[in-house]
Structures are given as C-alpha cells and as structure tokens.
C-alpha cells in the first residue's frame, strides 16, 4: 500500500524544490520523489516546508540524566577529565529501568528536536559491581526497547572498553561497568544481530578509543566483526582532547588519528567521533579514507575540548555529521547553529558553512550533516530521494520566526532565530508521524519516568 505526502517546498539532496510529491511503501521506504507536481487525491498535504530528518550520529543516552549537573568548579582547572570523574560516579548506580526511562525520554526529545535516528554508543554493560547481568545484553536491550517505543531509528553500537590509558593501562574502579574481553564483545554482537535485524535496527561496533582498546584487541575485534558483518558501521572516539594527543605521542610517537590510519582499515564504514585535534596531514589523510567525522559542538563546547577545523576538512571533501553526545543540547538545528558559530569564532568570518552550491548556511549544513550522518549510521536515511527511508521534518510556517518567509529563509530562521522555541510542526520516521503539532504523543509519560529515574540515581 503506497502512502503519499505533497509539499509546496521540500529540501531534496540537490537543493530546494517546489511542489514535491513523496510516495512510500509499507516498509517506510520512499518509492517516488517528484517535483513540479500537483496535489493528488489521497495524499496528505504538509503544513510547511519539508526538510530531511537528521541522523544523530553520536549518543550516550544515560548521560541525558547527568546534563546540567556538572556545571560547578571541582578543582582549580576543570576539564573533560574532571567532568568524566563525576560522570563515572553517576553511572555507577544506573540500572536497566533507569536506562530505559532515560533513553525513552531522550529519544522523544530527539524526535521533537528534528532527529529521526540515533547512533547509540552504549558502553555501560555490567552490574554496578562489574559482574555481568544474567542476560549479558540487559542494558543494551533497554536502549533498543526505548527506541522501539518512541519510534526513532537506531544504529546500536556496543562499545569495547578494556584499559584506562594508552599501552593497556589497568582500568580504574570507575570503569568496572564498561570492561569487556574481546571474545565477550564478539559474543554480544553475535547475540544482538538477529534481535536488531528483527526490529529494523542497524548493528555496528564501537572501539571506545585508542586509550581504552589496546592494539591487539583492536585488531582482533575488527577481524571478528568482519566475520559477523563486514558492512557493519564502526565508530571510535579519537583526538577529542589535547591530553589524549600528548599521551598518544608519548606512547607511540604518533598523533591519534595518524596512528589509527596506519594501524586499522579505516574506510567509509568508520565514524571518527570528535577528531578535534588533527594536524594538516591528518585532516588530509582522514578525509581521503572516506571516514565520516562525527561533530558534537554542544558537548565539545561544554567540555572545553576545542574547535574542529571544518574548512580544512571540507578542503579534502571529507564527510561529516552531528551528534548530541552528552545531550546538553538535544536539538538538531541548534547543534548546527553551534557548529557554525564555533567556526565563525575560530575564523572571525561569517557564513562559514555555506558553499558554492548552497549559499544559504542552513541549507548547506543540513544537507551535509544528513548525508554524513546517514553514512555513519549505515542506514538508508540519506535524505528525500527514492530508495531512502521516509524520514522527514515539517517546519511550522506559523511560528513567528518563520511566518511570511520563503522556504530557504524559514529553514535559516529555524536554525538561527527561533530562540529555543520549536519551529517544528511534525516529524516522520519511516513514513509514520512520530511528532504531531510539535509533541511526541507519549511525552508526558516519558518525562515522568525520566524524572523518577534521575531522582533515583541522585539518591544513589
């Protein structure tokens, strides 16, 4: 059974188009996207401009309950590393019910904020004392249930974590819930694959970082993954902080991205999360590998990580996408705004994200982030085109910031001028409306469960 939607304006992969008819099948896949059409009988009519749903390529769901709780000085110079110690204490009390409740609310927030899919970088595996649950996938399955309940698309990335520093340093007490052997990780991936396949989720794997996965383990886990699924997405934190770069140089004589490119088969399946601190050769060589860079501007700003050089990356035609990471911001347009503003501060120029094909910054950033996010997710969610999933967002033309504007300017106002009030009318995933009139239908129940889960964790 074919379903259809007509939009006066829609942002297609090549740019804005008028009078667009979208048709999709029962599986939620777009079968036709045609411009210059007239409204057809039986087709719904979008209230406002249509933009592609945004993939969120990096999420630690449980950290949503911790957002806002580390904004106080704990030592003379606070940094990512002092924040991490506080986060570990919070994670120590997390249980399956809290995980599902936090992820459920977060995923509803993501949908309301214009994200239609998420790559979940799941590294809390075990019970608080570090022993496995009877069902080894307990916490990972909690996030899968949350995604199914809210309707967001999912790429599930169980995380391999073995050491506390370069060269296989012994894990700390705060990391005991994360630690897995290589064999246990591969068994987990094997067990999760049929579950993910049955529920339309994509399964990949995430070596946490070079400091957390020794060289031999990285080689072995990649080899095992290739046997299970040679097309699986692979995500890794790399070069997020300057201390990480310094420690990697001291350990290996190479910077992190350079070491990774020399010692792993990095290609288009890979997502290099953050990659904030690269030199010119790393920018060139990483872009040539066809890997996606996962940028998380709100988290990178919150943690004081630094600013990615977007111009250098684009010089090499590098792909990139955005993620909400620690979820201090859960809004796709705001994340892109922060990316643009960070580039402006670093370069002392304006409209850095625009390009020759798309002089409107919001248009250019949206299209690039959708394409890169889809690649990182390993799913057919690359925009409004036949063969892709019917994931899209309808903007609210009556929002004061948008009212009376042309469609490209509406998107620009949505990104740069809506002042944190939602300019989203509806959000569709796989051809199903998951947000209506700006709200997820289960918002109130999910919010209540989240508040209770956070209160339980704070008491702990």
Major sheet characteristics: 5 strands, parallel
Please state the overall shape, judged from the principal axes of the Cα atoms. Answer: globular
Helical content (DSSP H or I, runs of 4+):
25-40%
- Summed over residues and divided by their number, the pLDDT gives a mean of 96
Provide a count of the helices.
Answer: 14
Low-confidence stretches: none
How much of the residues is beta strand, in percent? 15-25%
Q: How far apart are the termini?
A: 50 Å
Write up what this structure looks like.
It contains 14 helices and 17 strands. The protein has helices at residues 80-91, 96-112, 138-150, 182-198, 215-228, 242-252, 256-263, 280-288, 297-302, 310-315, 332-347, 361-377, 407-416, 443-459, and strands spanning 3-12, 15-24, 30-34, 44-45, 50-52, 54-59, 115-122, 153-160, 202-203, 206-207, 234-238, 270-274, 292-295, 319-322, 392-395, 424-429, 432-435. Strands 6, 7, 8, 9 and 10 form a five-stranded parallel β-sheet that branches. Strands 3-2-1-4 form a four-stranded mixed β-sheet, with no helix packed on it. A four-stranded antiparallel β-sheet has the order 5-15-16-17.
Question: Characteristics of this structure?
Answer:
about 450 residues, alpha/beta, five-stranded parallel beta sheet, four-stranded mixed beta sheet, 14 helices, about 20% strand, globular
In short:
With 460 residues, the chain is of the alpha/beta class. Helix content is 38%, strand content 19%.
Topology:
Layout: E1 3-12, E2 15-24, E3 30-34, E4 44-45, E5 50-52, E6 54-59, H1 80-91, H2 96-112, E7 115-122, H3 138-150, E8 153-160, H4 182-198, E9 202-203, E10 206-207, H5 215-228, E11 234-238, H6 242-252, H7 256-263, E12 270-274, H8 280-288, E13 292-295, H9 297-302, H10 310-315, E14 319-322, H11 332-347, H12 361-377, E15 392-395, H13 407-416, E16 424-429, E17 432-435, H14 443-459
Parallel strand pairs: 1-4, 6-7, 7-8, 8-9, 8-10, 11-12, 12-13, 13-14
Antiparallel strand pairs: 1-2, 2-3, 5-15, 15-16, 16-17
């Amino acid at each position: 059974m074919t379903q259809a939607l007509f939009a006066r304006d829609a942002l297609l992969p090549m740019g804005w188009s008028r009078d667009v008819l979208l048709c999709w099948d029962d599986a939620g896949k777009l079968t036709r996207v045609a411009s210059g059409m007239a409204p057809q009988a039986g087709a719904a009519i979008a209230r406002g401009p249509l933009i592609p749903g945004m993939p969120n390529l990096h999420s630690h769901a449980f950290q949503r309950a911790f957002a806002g709780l580390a904004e106080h000085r704990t030592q003379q110079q606070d940094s990512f590393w002092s924040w991490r110690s506080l986060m570990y204490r919070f994670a120590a009390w997390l249980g399956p019910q809290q995980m599902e409740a936090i992820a459920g609310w977060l995923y509803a927030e993501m949908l309301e904020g214009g994200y239609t899919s998420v790559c979940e970088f799941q590294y809390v595996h075990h019970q608080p004392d570090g022993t496995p649950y009877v069902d080894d996938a307990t916490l990972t399955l909690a996030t899968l249930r949350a995604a199914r309940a809210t309707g967001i698309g999912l790429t599930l990335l169980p995380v391999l974590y073995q050491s506390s520093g370069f060269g296989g340093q012994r894990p700390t007490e705060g990391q005991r819930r994360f630690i897995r052997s290589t064999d246990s990780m591969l068994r987990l991936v094997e067990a999760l694959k049929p579950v993910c396949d049955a529920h339309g989720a994509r399964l990949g794997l995430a070596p946490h970082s070079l400091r957390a996965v020794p060289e031999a383990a990285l080689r072995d886990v990649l080899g095992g993954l290739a046997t299970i699924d040679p097309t699986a997405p692979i995500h890794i934190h790399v070069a997020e902080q300057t201390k990480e770069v310094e420690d990697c140089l001291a350990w290996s004589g190479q910077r992190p991205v350079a070491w990774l490119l020399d010692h792993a088969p990095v290609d288009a399946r890979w997502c290099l999360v953050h990659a904030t601190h690269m030199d010119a050769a790393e920018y060139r060589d990483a872009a040539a590998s066809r890997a996606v860079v996962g940028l998380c501007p709100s988290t990178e700003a919150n943690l004081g990580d630094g600013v990615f050089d977007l111009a250098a990356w684009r010089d090499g035609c590098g792909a990139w996408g955005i993620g909400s990471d620690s979820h201090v911001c859960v809004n796709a347009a705001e994340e892109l705004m922060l990316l643009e503003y960070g580039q402006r501060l670093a370069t002392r120029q304006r409209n850095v994200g625009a390009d020759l094909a798309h002089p409107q910054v919001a248009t250019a950033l949206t299209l690039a982030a959708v394409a890169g996010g889809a690649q990182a997710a390993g799913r057919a969610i690359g925009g409004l085109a036949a063969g892709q999933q019917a994931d899209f967002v309808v903007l609210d033309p009556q929002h004061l910031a948008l009212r009376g504007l042309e469609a490209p300017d509406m998107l620009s106002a949505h990104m740069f001028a809506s002042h944190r009030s939602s300019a989203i009318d509806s959000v569709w995933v796989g051809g199903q409306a998951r947000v209506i009139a700006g709200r997820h239908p289960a918002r109130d129940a999910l919010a209540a469960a989240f508040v209770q889960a956070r209160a339980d964790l704070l008491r702990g």
